[in-house]
Amino acid sequence: MDKLNVAVVGAGIYGINHVNAYLSNPNVNLAAVCDLNENLREKIEEQYHVKTYGKVEDMLENEEIDAVSIATPDFSHAAPALQAIRYGKHVLIEKPLATTLEDARAIIAEAEKKNVRVAVDYHKRWDPASIQIKNELAKPEAGKVIRGYMSMDDIIDVPTKWFNWSDKSSPVHFLGTHCYDLIRWYMGCEVTEVYAVGTKEYLKSMGIDTYDSIQAFLTFENGCHWTVENSWVLPTGFAKNNDGHTQILTTNSLLRVDSQNRGVEIFDDSRYRTPNYCFMQMFEGRPVGFGYDPINDFVRCLQYDLPFIANAKDGLEAEKIAEAVHKSVETASAVKIEKEIK
Asked: Is the pLDDT of residue 21 over 80?
């Protein structure tokens, strides 16, 4: 089987994981990496011996590439994705697909026009706990889902120290979109209505104009109701960089997931820690974990012409929910979500 020539656009905090995944995949040739940061490009060339570019178009013009990973900040996915698609490249886009419906639909339209494929990295679908819940709900004896609850929160270092673009995103786009996608996957149907409330005080007082926390109430086509809570202002001293919980009540069962404490606890002189050992680790010089699985799955699906586990339609539906949540917060009213017309 011929190797796929793949490139990565955006090699920051998360993009470097795409670099590591592709370098360790025997079916991939990492052709190039593109990033605006010159110092970062120099480090990548020195450490990984991969050619780098400062402009996406220069990379696409000069390299033989089959597919591109887009791992730029939330708000800047559309431009590089559209460039790659127009050059006839398949793309894997970090969640969210885009931060506006206009951009999401533009990506899908261009991909259809150029006959290329688009996957979205909703890596929570590869989490072993999520797979267990998906399989449990599929059993006839599980019963009908009555209600669900999901939370996903980050420590305050994420919007204040990790990124300089937090005001161009929100807990909805950075965290909530994971939840919306995962719940859609569990339910097997779409959201019809959203009601949400939000708080914008703490981060705004620090000069970052975005929401601290947003709580959303989602109604699905099957009549099920879900509550989703997202924030990124947990205290720095929290045991992990993020927290997450799920609880699902059905007519026959109660399912719970604790994504914060997965059973490994570490005590030292600095703080108590509960690492997510399932997510990303290095083992024998190879990256392992469900954070890398969707990147490798992207390659597998392209090589064997298989359907993506999370595709552009999934990205669009999650963005529809995200926009409805923001609109509901701003208008203090319920927002209906229209079904896509084929």
From this structure: yes
